[in-house]
Amino acid sequence: MKQRGKQVCSALAMAVSLALSSGGALAAATGGNAAAVDPRIGTGGDGHTFPGATVPFGMIQLSPDTAMPDFKHAYKWAAGYQYGDGTIMGFSHTHFSGSGHSDMGDVLVMPIAGDVKLDPGDADKPGSGYRSRFSHGAEVEQAGYYAVTLSDYGVRAELTASPRIGWHRYTFPKDKPAHVLLDFRPSIYDYPGKVLWSDLRVRADGTVTGCRTTRGWAPGRELCFAMRFSQPMTSRTLYNRETGLVYNGFKGPGNQPQDNDAENGRALEGVFDFGNLGKPLLAKVAISPVSEANAVANLDQDGKGWDFDARHASATAAWNKALSAIDVEGTPEQRTGFYTSLYHAMLAPTLSMDVNGEYRGPDHQVHQADGFEFYSSWSMWDVYRAEEPLMVLLRPDLSTQFIRSLIAAQKASPFGMLPVWAYQGLETWCMTGYHAVAIIADAYIKGVRGFDADQALKAMVSTATYGNYGDLADYMKLGYVPIDKETEAGSKTQEYAYDDWAIAQMAKALGKNDVYATFEKRAANWRNVWDPQTSFMRAKLSNGQFRTPFDPTSAAYGSDYTEANAWQYSWYVPQDVAGLVAAYGGDAKFTGKLDQMFDAKVDPAIFKNVEDITGLIGWYAHGNEPSHHIAYLYDYAGAPWKTQQRLKQIMDSQYGVKPDGLVGNDDLGQMSAWYIFTALGFYPVTPASDEYAIGRPFVPKAVLHLPNGHAFTIVAEHMDDAHPYVGSVTLNGKPLDRVFLRHAEILAGGELCFVMQAQPNRQWGTATTARPTSMSAWQQ
Question: Strand order in 426-427's β-sheet?
Fold first, then answer.
C-alpha cells in the first residue's frame, strides 16, 4: 500500500507536468519565471507596492511617483504610486514595498520636452506643473523594467536597475528641446521643513552630485547621489526655491536661479538642458547613505558603460535566477499569483552599503563592513513571521548576510538594541516586540551558519533586557507590561513572551543553560494576560487587575493591542498553542471559538479609524499580521480539515491577480510570503522551531530547488474547487499522519504528495501525537 502511494504520486507528478506544461513552456519560451511576475499587483487599494524597476534585495527601487502628498494624506501613497491616479510627477530612486508607513522617494527626476515648469502642479489641472498625464495602456511593468509614455511631453521613459544604479532611457520628440528636471525638495510622507539641508553641484565632467538630510520617519537621514548623462548638457540651471525662511542670516531667494555649478539650501532644483535630440538620452544614478564621494565611487564601479538593453537583460536574468528557487506548474493565473508573491518577498531587506564597504548605522555614524554586505529595510514585526523563514529555506546564504547586518546594527546602537523597524541603517522604533531575535533564532535552529552565534545571543539578550524599551523594566519585574505605564500592553506582553521563547531556543542550542532557563520562564508570561473569565487576552494594570471596561471588539491606536482587537490578538501564543488550547478548555472549545471568530458578522466600519485592519473574514483580518497564523491553529486542536477550509476562504477572497489584489499592505513581503508558504501547503506558525504546520496546497505541482542541491517536490492530486480537502498525505511514498513537516525533511529532498477530496477527512492528523510541537505538553 505504501509503495502504491509512491507510484501514484510519482506518476501524478509526471501527468501534472504534461497536462500543465503550458506554464513550464511559457517560462521556457520567455526566458524564465520572471515572465510570470506582474508588478502591478498591490499598486491599487492598500497594497502599497511600487511598479518600477529593481533587482532582488537591491539598493535602488526606481519607480514612478504619482503623488507625494503631505503626511496627513500619505497613507495610500506609501510607495509613491497609486494605480488609480492619472498623472506622474517623476521617477525617484528609493521606495518601500508594501509598508504601512512611508518615507523615501529620493532623487526625483522628470524628463520634459518643451517649456519647463518648476513645480509639480495640480493633478486635476493639466499643464499647471511639470507632472504629466499617462495611460496604463502605455505602461510596461516587468520584473526589473518599467516603461511609460508621458503623454503631455510625448516622451517615452524606460527604467531598469542594477544593485546600486538606476538606469533611465528617455526618447524625446525630435522637434522639442529636451530637459531633465531634478527636484530635490519632495519625498514620500512629505511635510514642511522635512529637508534640513541639501546641496547640488555639477562637476567639471558633467556628473551631477548632491546630498540631503531629512527629518522624516528616521530623523537625520542622509542620502547622497551621483548622476551622469549619455550626452553633454547644452546648459544647466540650479535653483534654491526657499521663500520666507531665514537661516544663518540668509533669506531664501525664491524662484531665482542661483548658480550653474553649485547650490545649497533646503529647497533645491536643477534643470539640465540638452537641446533637440535625435537619439535617446540615457541617465544613470547611484545613491549612497554615506557621502557624495561614495555615490560617485558606486557609479564608477557599478555603473560602467551606456548599454541600457544589456542592463535590462541583466536585471531580468537576476530575477530569473532568484525566482528559479521554486518551479511551479499551474494555470497562468496561479503562476502569476505565485511568482509575483515570490518577487515581492525578494524586494526587502535592501542592500544599504557602498562599494567600499561603508554603511551608516543607527548611531548615524559611518561604519565599515568586515566581510559581509550590510542590509536594511527591516519591518521586524511583519517579516519574522514568514518572509524571513522563507529566505532561510530558499536563500540561507542571504540569511547569513541579513543576520550579520542585524548584529552589526546592534553593536552600533546607542541602546544595545537589535533593529525594530530600520531602513538605510537608521531606526524608526515603529511597531512592537523585539522580533529580530526570532529571525536570528529561526535561522540558527534551521542550520544557517556563517555568523558568530555567541555574539548573536549576546545581542539578543541585550535587546530583551533593555528596560527603557517598551516598558521592559516592568515586564521583567511583574511578568507583564502594565497598561497604565505603556500603551498596547496586552499584545506587547504576548509578543515579548514569544520573543523570549525564541531566545531560549537559541540559548538551548548553544548550551547556554542559564540563559535558556531565564527566557524559557519568561516565555510563559502570556499566561499573565489571559483572562479565563472572558477567554480573551487582556491588559493589566500595575496593581494586577485587568483594565476595565473591556470590549473585545474595540481596536484603536493606544488600546490594549497593536493594530488589532481582542478577537485577533487572543490567539497569539505561537510558542505554546497546546497551553492556549488547554486554557480555552480543550479542543472543542478552542475550535468553537475559532469558528465563532471566522463566522462572526462584522461591519468593516468598526475599523474605519485603524487603517491597517483590513481583509475581514468575521473578526479575522488577513490584511494585518496578527491574524496570519490563526487559520493554521485548527491543526493544533485536532481539526486540520478546518484549517484547510479556512485557508481556501482566505486564498479565494484576499488575493487577486489585479492591481488591488492585496487586501492590505504587503509589508516588505510578509503578505506575499504567507501566500507562498500557503500555496505550497505548509506554514511556519512558530519561527525558531524546526517545524511547519501543514495546510493544503494551492498549486498542482511545485519543485523547490534547495541550496544544498536537493529538490523537494510537492504534488496535489485532484486539486480543484470541487476537492478542497486533504484526503491523505505521503512523504517519499510513506503515509504522513501528522500535520507538520520538519525543516530537515524538506532539506533532504523528496516528494510530498497530497491527495485532495471533496469531503473533509476527519480522522487524518487528529491525534495529539500528530500535532506540531508546543511549549506545554499536549493534554490527552
Answer: 378-379, 421-423, 426-427
